[in-house]
Amino acid sequence: MAPVPPILVRTARRCWRWQWQQLMGGLAPADSEGNYRRPAGVFTALPPLPEDAAAPDGHVLIVGRSCPWAHRAWLVWSLRGLAGSIALEVVEPDPEAGRWRFTRPFLGCTTLQELYRACGAPAATRATVPVLVSRRRQRVVVGESARLIELLNQWPSGQALDLDPAPQREATGRWRERLQHSVNDGVYRCGFARTQAAYDRAEAALFATLAEVEEQLSTRPDPWLSGPMLSLADVQLFPTLIRLELVYAPLFGVSRLPLWQLPALWRWRSRFHALPGVADTCAAAAWRQDYFGTLFPLHPSGIVPAGPCLATLVAEPPAGGHTPGETP
After folding, report:
1. What is the pTM of this model?
2. Measured distance CA(93)–CA(112) in Å, rounded
3. What digits encode the pLDDT tens for the residues 262-305?
4. Which of 328, 326, 327, 304 is nearest to 315 (CA)?
5. Per-residue pLDDT tens for 173-193?
6. Does a cis peptide bond (omega within 30 degrees of 0) precede residue 130?
7. Domain covering 170-313 assigned CATH 1.20.1050.10 in the classification
8. How many Å apart are CA 62 and CA 89, to the nearest integer?
9. In which residue ranges of the chain is CATH 3.40.30.10 found?
10. Domain 59-154 falls in which CATH fold?
């Protein structure tokens, strides 16, 4: 086969670069320096606890399996045993249309976008999960994940678990703010960066924060991030860390440091995954299918590559600190 002429290669690269920029503009807006900027959402205010919060099946929590922001709300719902008053509705991605759809009609809607519009959101608003909906009022209560997990932590429950314990509240707040920017959104700022410099900044901030978490967990006797009791800071970190090797490292380019080289964080992740109900919120196959199959600008082939088994990522590391099957 004759070699491809260099001019054709250069032309193809320029064309693909232009097309990639156009596609990324719709998927992930960026500033003039190429830094990803998450679009502002709607239904973001923290509302008071609804008067009918304890009513059986009075509210519905809408989540998507692959979404880490929805995962944190799902975790609080599960850990606090809220199934009696809040039903769980899992939406599925529609890659062709770029939206979430219901598996069966919900309040007369077939897509999450339709529900947003029915609840008063502007037509151009991007519909995202998680969303807490009142059945009786047929409206969105709150749709911003950080505020939603705070509300769910206040929700009446037969369990005494408080994920924002007063003795740790200040430390929990500090960690949540740090994690939100550098880790939770940080992996997306790496994956959606438009320039090398933007990626370098986001990647450095991500691993600097993970190093701080490692130091915190390895130098203090407390088993959890902000103290001796489980908190919203732990809930906020887990969805990102459990997806690290499965999705973010191969797709978003955050593979500088495998997690087995941060043994305290590895043990923390295993400990969190072992909590009652947590494993039921983890769907590794769906995560990989949705990320690799849906984010076309980052992975045009749509081929879902093989990845590690989730069970090996939450097992106790063997002597020497290496993960099962890992070559030292």
Report:
1. 0.91
2. 10
3. 999 999 999 999 999 999 999 999 999 999 988 888 888 889 99
4. 326
5. 999 999 999 999 999 999 999
6. yes
7. yes
8. 5
9. 59-154
10. Glutaredoxin (3.40.30)
